[in-house]
Amino acid sequence: MTGLLTEAEGDPVAIENAEAKGEFLFVCEHASNRMPERLGTLGLSKEALESHVAWDPGALAVSRLLSKELDGTLIHQRFSRLAYDCNRPPEAAAAMPAVSETYEVPGNVALSAAERQARIQEIYLPFHAAVTRAVADRKAARRGPVLVTIHSFTPIYFGKPRTVELGILHDADSRLAERILAAAATAEAGYDVRRNEPYGPADGVTHSLIEYGIRLGVPNVMIEIRNDLIRDKVGQRVMADYLAGLLATSAVALPAQQ
């Protein structure tokens, strides 16, 4: 395969509220379970493609609500993370996983160098360029940014229930995460909020934070929401309102990384 996306499929990355006046830049790497036409189903069932292994259910809806509430720009991936996971660098096996939790992904087994490069070239690199450009433009205009990536996670993983409801993740730069955790500790909502759970830097999930936050010198945080809390519009609105309050409070007078 020398080409992946058709002209009809459009851009692999979407940008919403591009002219936002607020300081927040929201990124949703696992927004969609849509598969590029030329990849078919990657050998997966409809059930698998609708499950959390193909995308982060509810994450895009919450991201859009946050973008509106805080007048922030939103950038999201338009294809499934099983085609290419934009929160992974090209050299990572998890960028095009052959296995995701308990699901084997036949279409990702034994990919040729050309097939891998097509996915990198047509999905990851445009996404990378869009986020990098958005950060640079905001910095040039002296409007932040504050980078916030939004994800969701399954309540049951490898058959084991997860009690954590909200994860506040960070890598080497913990400034924004520290503030959010402190604000959550005094909030009335009563969610089970934890640092670097259910994933953390050791799990390889902080690529975007490193690439667009730490490397570019802007405050950053990754938010993981248990997806049973955001299954419907009511849950999505409640969570977005809660997170908007935490973010607005925590980002006040937060200096750029030195």
Throw out a few tags for this protein.
6 helices; globular; Aminopeptidase; 7-stranded mixed beta sheet; two-stranded antiparallel sheet; 258 residues; alpha/beta; single chain
Question: Can you characterise this structure?
Answer:
The protein is globular. The chain has a single domain (7-250), classed as Aminopeptidase, CATH 3.40.630. The strands form three sheets. The chain has a seven-stranded mixed beta sheet, with helices on both faces. A two-stranded antiparallel ribbon has the order 4-5. The protein has six helices and eleven strands. Helix 2 packs across helix 6 and helix 4 (175-186) packs across helix 6 (233-250). It has 258 residues and is an alpha/beta fold. The termini are far apart.
Query: In one word, what is the shape?
Result: globular
State the oligomer: single chain
For the residues shown, what is the average pLDDT? Answer: 95
Q: Widest sheet: strand order?
A: 1-3-2-6-11-9-10
Q: Helix and strand string, N-terminal first? A: EEHHEEEHEEEEHEHEH
Give unreliable regions as ranges.
Answer: none
Helix/strand class: alpha/beta
Largest sheet: 7 strands, mixed
What share of the residues does DSSP label as strand, in percent?
15-25%
Number of helices: 6
Helical residue percent band: 25-40%
Under CATH, the topology can be stated as Aminopeptidase
Q: What's the alpha carbon Rg, rounded to whole Å? A: 18 Å
